[in-house]
Amino acid sequence: MNRKKRLVKQSIFIACEGQTEERYFSAIGDIINEDPKYSVKVRTLEIEDGVPQDPLGLVKEALRIKEEDGHDEAWAVFDKDREPNPQVRIAAFQFANTYKINVAFSSIAFEHWILLHFEKNQNPFSRCICSNVEGGTQCTCKGALCLSGYLKEKH
Q1: Bridge partners (DSSP) listed for residue 16
Q2: Beta-sheet pairing, 136-138 with 131-133
Q3: Do residues 149 and 130 touch, judged by C-beta distance below 8 A?
């Protein structure tokens, strides 16, 4: 007797802290989702019920959604510039390790990952714009210090 094998998709959930990260991983997810073996879902959890997510909250929420929706794997994506307190980041890594939640961590800013797709760059950028001039945001370093200014100047 000839039986068709039923293919069960590997379900992956990615919790992001911002829209840049969500767009990046959603684009990758669109490519991966073309493979019938995988299902990738991406969601921004930057603000949940009016409360900003710190890295520990993001990891806990990734675990909750993983368990509620029955995902095989979950990721929490966050960077250093959103949480200056290293103790909160350490707690997030420890919780993730305990509950088998994967972490994608950027020690500069997530936008640096995107830049590295286009050029090798080891500048120690900050994420923020240099200054606020007359109510409008303007980079005064022309990309020498901040990642946003660099991206605007070069790309």
Answers
A1: 44, 77
A2: antiparallel
A3: yes
Of 27-36, 49-58, 61-70, 79-88, the range with the lowest mean pLDDT is 49-58
Q: Which helix (H) or strand (E) covers residue 144, if one does? A: none
Q: How far apart are CA 75 and CA 131, in angstroms?
A: 34
At 29, is the secondary structure helix, strand, or coil? helix
Residue 50: predicted pLDDT: 56
Residues 47, 49: Cα–Cα separation, whole Å: 6
What confidence tens digit (pLDDT) does each residue in 61-75 have? 999 999 999 999 999
Tell me whether strands 47-48 and 51-52 are parallel, antiparallel or unpaired: antiparallel
HSE (CB half, 13 Å, CA atoms) of 6?
A: 1
**Contact indicator for 121, 113 with CB cutoff of 8 Å:** no
Cβ neighbours of residue 32 under 8 Å, at least 6 residues apart?
A: 12, 38, 40
